[in-house]
Amino acid sequence: xxxxxxxxxxxxxxxxxxxxxxxxxxxxxxxxxxxxxxxxxxxxxxxxxxxxxxxxxxxxxxxxxxxxxxxxxxxxxxxxxxxxxxxxxxxxxxxxxxxxxxxxxxxxxxxxxxxxxxxxxxxxxxxxxxxxxxxxxxxxxxxxxxxxxxxxxxxxxxxxxxxxxxxxxxxxxxxxxxxxxxxxx
Length: 185
Ligand code: ADP
Hints:
Blueprint: E1 2-6, H1 13-24, E2 28-30, H2 31-40, H3 44-53, H4 61-72, E3 81-84, H5 90-102, E4 109-114, H6 117-131, H7 138-152, H8 154-162, E5 165-169, H9 174-184
Parallel strand pairs: 1-3, 1-4, 2-3, 4-5
Helix pairs in contact: 2-3, 4-5, 6-7
This protein binds adenosine-5'-diphosphate.
């Protein structure tokens, strides 16, 4: 099964991605996690990415597309994968289409987790207190939500046109949402 988890920051993509990974035994690929690991290890990629991440901006498409291409070439993605946080722009979605076409691995579902802006602001602000992520400052949170609206929300239409879009309300308990996702797969 090849899935994309689409949704604004704070929608719960990571939490649901983890559940899906456990349920289906396929890798959960989070570009945010890959970037945070690079930042932690102070690799050249990490040093470059950090300047974008800290202010809630997107890392340039060519950098992210390179990361995704490498990760999707690994053997553990053979039975499928769950993408969390990629693609995030139309250019990334087009590059992904191309990669999957080349490897003859069509997508099965694009799960769009829907949460209102007010709820997202609340969640991201309380997550800051728990996790202490540097990009959870008020300023960066606002910027990430703006960037989502401008750059990532257009992917909802992009995937609706392909017939792969599965909208799922992202409110309720983690279990409620996991259950809703299961029913659309
Ligand atoms: P969130 O969904 O809460 O914003 P992520 O962990 O998905 O968190 O991403 C954190 C940051 O990593 C983003 O704000 C961005 O700077 C960078 N990033 C992650 N994925 C991508 C991507 N596909 N394209 C560009 N930047 C990305």
